[in-house]
């Protein structure tokens, strides 16, 4: 029923420093983006995926992801924007314009290539159950300090009330559109929705949904994750 996944994949992967856009960096010989899209379809709840690709790589992204779509579904590739939020906005506009019946949208980073399909399903089910916005989360295991401009600690938030946020984040499509049209700024899509005053619900995330950002993360993925999922 009307679930479309938007995959921002247009970043350059500067912190990874691999010499390729991060979406195309292979882990166990398979590009991160291919793994991410495969996982979305494997959840069995997504028919259409809209990818915001690096503008110079739209054709190659099309070639490597088109075969992943299930019968009756499709992968759509467009050129992403300058910032992640621009890429999401472009993909959302495309979905609402070109994919009839788009009622629920997931926003999923290509960089979270090993997200287990059951996390995708849990997010979709929570939105279907009536939550306008849903994020997968993990507990915080480190103590977290708030510091001032000089790096001096000013507060120690109660760790029990903190969560690490992952993707896919799930939304009523109209709510996400309103958030992106609001002119507000936030570091993730749920943060934008939160600023509208819309409640954001949580479901259990998974450590395999880690974001691959640095060479360390890539090494962890190669060492721990490829065997189980390749
Ligand atoms: N992204 C995007 N469009 C941008 C920037 C980022 O679609 N203009 C995507 C990335 O491709 C990634 C996700 O947003 O899947 C999260 O971004 P991040 O992990 O920061 O990836 P990069 O921007 O590629 O990495 P870096 O910041 O190190 O360059
Ligand atoms: Mg980035």
From TrEMBL:
Pathway: Isoprenoid biosynthesis; isopentenyl diphosphate biosynthesis via DXP pathway; isopentenyl diphosphate from 1-deoxy-D-xylulose 5-phosphate: step 2/6. One of its GO terms (molecular function) is 2-C-methyl-D-erythritol 4-phosphate cytidylyltransferase activity. The record marks 159, 211 as: Positions MEP for the nucleophilic attack. One of its GO terms (biological process) is isopentenyl diphosphate biosynthetic process, methylerythritol 4-phosphate pathway. It is an enzyme of class 2 (transferase). It catalyses: 2-C-methyl-D-erythritol 4-phosphate + CTP + H(+) = 4-CDP-2-C-methyl-D-erythritol + diphosphate. Keywords: Isoprene biosynthesis, Nucleotidyltransferase, Transferase. Pfam families: IspD (PF01128). InterPro entries: IspD (IPR001228), IspD/TarI (IPR034683), IspD/TarI_cytidylyltransf_bact (IPR050088), ISPD_synthase_CS (IPR018294), Nucleotide-diphossugar_trans (IPR029044). Its EC number is 2.7.7.60. The record marks 15, 22 as: Transition state stabilizer. Belongs to the IspD/TarI cytidylyltransferase family. IspD subfamily. Catalyzes the formation of 4-diphosphocytidyl-2-C-methyl-D-erythritol from CTP and 2-C-methyl-D-erythritol 4-phosphate (MEP). PANTHER family: 2-C-METHYL-D-ERYTHRITOL 4-PHOSPHATE CYTIDYLYLTRANSFERASE, CHLOROPLASTIC. This is 2-C-methyl-D-erythritol 4-phosphate cytidylyltransferase. It comes from Saccharothrix espanaensis (strain ATCC 51144 / DSM 44229 / JCM 9112 / NBRC 15066 / NRRL 15764).
């Amino acid at each position: 029923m009307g679930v479309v996944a938007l995959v921002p994949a247009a970043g350059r992967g500067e912190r990874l420093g691999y010499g390729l856009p991060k979406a195309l960096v292979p882990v166990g010989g398979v590009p991160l983006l291919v793994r991410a899209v495969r996982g979305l379809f494997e959840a069995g709840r997504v028919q259409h995926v809209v990818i915001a690709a690096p503008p110079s790589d739209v054709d190659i992204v099309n070639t490597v992801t088109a075969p992943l779509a299930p019968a009756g579904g499709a992968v759509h590739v467009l050129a992403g924007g300058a910032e992640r939020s621009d890429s999401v906005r472009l993909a959302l506009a495309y979905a609402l314009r070109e994919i009839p019946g788009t009622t629920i949208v997931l926003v999923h980073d290509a960089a979270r290539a090993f997200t287990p399909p059951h996390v995708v399903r849990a997010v979709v089910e929570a939105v279907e159950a009536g939550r306008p916005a849903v994020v997968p989360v993990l507990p915080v295991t480190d103590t977290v300090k708030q510091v001032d401009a000089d790096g001096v600690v000013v507060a120690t938030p109660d760790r029990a009330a903190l969560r690490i946020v992952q993707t896919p984040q799930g939304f009523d499509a109209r709510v996400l559109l309103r958030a992106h049209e609001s002119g507000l700024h936030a570091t993730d899509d749920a943060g934008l929705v939160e600023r509208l005053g819309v409640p954001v619900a949580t479901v259990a995330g998974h450590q395999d949904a880690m974001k691959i950002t640095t060479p360390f993360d890539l090494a962890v993925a190669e060492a721990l994750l490829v065997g189980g999922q390749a």
